[in-house]
Design a protein that fits this description.
Number of strands: 2
Strand content: under 5%
Helix content: 25-40%
Shape: globular
Oligomer: single chain
Number of helices: 4
Low-confidence stretches: none
Largest sheet: 2 strands, antiparallel
Bound molecules: iron/sulfur cluster
Mean pLDDT: 92
Strand order of the largest sheet: 1-2
Amino acid sequence: MKIVDGADDICQTCPHLKAGVCTRPGENIQALDRRVLARLSLKQGDFADWFELRERVRAGVRPGDLAGLCGGCRWRSLNFCAEGLEQLAAGSQDG
Ligand code: SF4
């Protein structure tokens, strides 16, 4: 998987994507992505597989980190990421 700090494959069919850039008002995905990548000691253009990424997240991110690390993300309040991190720390994530 190639690491990017900005619009990714998931964004490709989004109506907010214009010329490869997210234009959704209030969305600053590049700043969010760069904070997370720095935490994981990764940068734009790196390559990593799923298992390596999962291990970096398990070792480097705790649920309590999300407020600072992912501040501004619209999805954070749904708590999916915090729950996933708790499961990962407990060793109950498959795949
Ligand atoms: S809103 Fe922006 S970050 Fe979200 S899917 Fe669309 S282009 Fe990607």
